[in-house]
Amino acid sequence: MLKLIERLGPVAESAASDTLTLPFELRIRGRLKTKSDGGRELGLFLDRGPVLRSGEGLKAESGEVVRVCAAVEPVVTARVSTGLPLARLAYHLGNRHVQLALGEDEKGGWVRFPPDHVLEELAELLGAELEHHNATFDPEPGAYNQVGGGHSHSHGHDHDHTHEHHHAH
What we know:
Elements: E1 2-10, E2 18-22, H1 24-27, E3 31-35, E4 41-45, E5 56-60, E6 65-70, E7 72-79, H2 84-94, E8 101-105, E9 108-113, H3 117-125, E10 129-136
Parallel strand pairs: 1-4, 2-6
Antiparallel strand pairs: 1-5, 3-4, 5-6, 7-9, 7-10, 8-9
Keywords: Chaperone, Cytoplasm, Nickel
Pfam family, one: UreE_C
Family: Belongs to the UreE family.
């Protein structure tokens, strides 16, 4: 088993010998026995707390690097007018202490979360239109949990082939 013991922050695809695709609920764990996308047995022995981010590298005891990928999973994307309505939606959903992804595309700004009927009802009460679909879920890390303690940023584009980037300032 390849023991992954250190978080490296974002790494280029070319820097990794393998990839590990996980849904959000498994990317929040520091300890996990799993298989890489290449079929290798992996053990995660990481600090608890920070979410594994899509594109993050994990270093093994051997020095090898495995790159984390966010899995495609069921999500709800809530869309509402930009400005105050979008800020209000993000505030009220975030006030429920749930993980949220925020983004922007050609249709405007959005808030994304795992399916949850209570959150969906709240979003609709605030005027949002909901889209139930499958996509990656890579929520905001929070101001105090930025990878490497610095500025993280992404590119706000959503593609049908399940490859997404999100701004996180």
